[in-house]
Every structure is written in C-alpha cells, then in structure tokens.
Design brief:
Shape: elongated
Helix content: 25-40%
Number of helices: 3
Strand order of the largest sheet: 1-2-3-4
Number of strands: 7
Order of helices and strands: EHHEEEEEEH
Radius of gyration: 24 Å
Structural class: alpha+beta
C-alpha cells in the first residue's frame, strides 16, 4: 500500500467554473435588459410585442445555461477506479485499465494513458487551477500506484523467446 495515498480524489475546473458563471450572468443580464427595453411598438416593418420580450429573456436564459455547461467537467477517483465526466462524455475505468496519469508541463489539462494505448483527457484538472490541479494529479497518481501495488504479479511465460 502506498503511504500517503488519499482515500478518494475529486476535481472540478474551479477557474473555468467561475468564468462560466460570470459569463452566464452577463448573458442573462444583457438579454433581460434587451428584452425589457425592447419597445412594445411597431417600426413600420416589424411589430414588437410582449412575446418578443419574453423570447429575448428566454434566449438569454438558454445561452446562460449553455455557458454553464462548459464548466461541468469532473473527475472522481477512489480505490475501485476513476470516473471522468467531460463536456458530453463519461468514462468509468478500473485502475487496471490505466497505465499512467499525465500532466505535461505545457498541457492545458491532465490525461489518463490507458493500457490499450488510448488517452482520455480530464478537462476537470486544468493548468489554470495551478496548485489545486497539481494536488489532484498527485492524488490520482498515488491511487494508481496503490492499485498497481495491490495487483498480483503476472504469471511467467511458458516460452520466453
């Protein structure tokens, strides 16, 4: 068992969530202002009414919700494996399927290298979060090391050519 390995690791993109929340609030406020200030009159060609005002506010709410969706990424890991939720895709992997946790110096986010050669990006662990991201990667690596240490040794090959 690896000393100092956490029982569980959870990570979310903190800075991205703050930026998305601020952007969503600005979008909703701007579209609400436009909706409320939209004249309830005719320009000669187009007639604006209360339905147009409500539609503008509704569009603002939809755009705000879409903006909040960008910060929805999450990584949760424990002794049984790792669960990664990116923008639209979820992955649930046992530690036996993970070869390494990567976070290169110039990468924007961390990734998991899998035994089969694939790589899964973890958008929740972003370089912009600095020390928070480093602690998350260290925790994930400690959990991976603990899981690898608990695996039984591979059986010897019958013919070692």
């Amino acid at each position: 068992m690896t000393p100092g390995a956490p029982a569980a690791v959870s990570a979310v993109p903190r800075r991205l969530r703050m930026v998305c929340a601020l952007g969503a609030a600005v979008l909703v406020a701007a579209m609400t202002t436009v909706g409320l200030l939209l004249p309830s009159s005719s320009t000669g060609v187009v007639e604006f009414g209360w339905a147009d005002q409500v539609a503008m506010i509704g569009i603002g709410v939809c755009l705000g919700a879409g903006t909040l969706t960008l910060g929805r990424s999450r990584v949760d890991a424990d002794a049984s494996g790792v669960r990664v939720r990116n923008l639209f895709v979820r992955h649930e992997l046992p530690w036996a399927a993970v070869r390494a946790v990567r976070f290169d110096r110039h990468s924007s986010w961390a990734s998991l290298l899998l035994v089969n050669g694939d790589e899964i990006s973890m958008l929740a662990v972003q370089a912009a979060d600095k020390e928070y991201a480093v602690r998350a990667v260290e925790g994930l690596r400690a959990l991976l090391d603990r899981a690898k240490a608990a695996e039984p040794a591979p059986l010897p090959l019958l013919y070692d050519d």
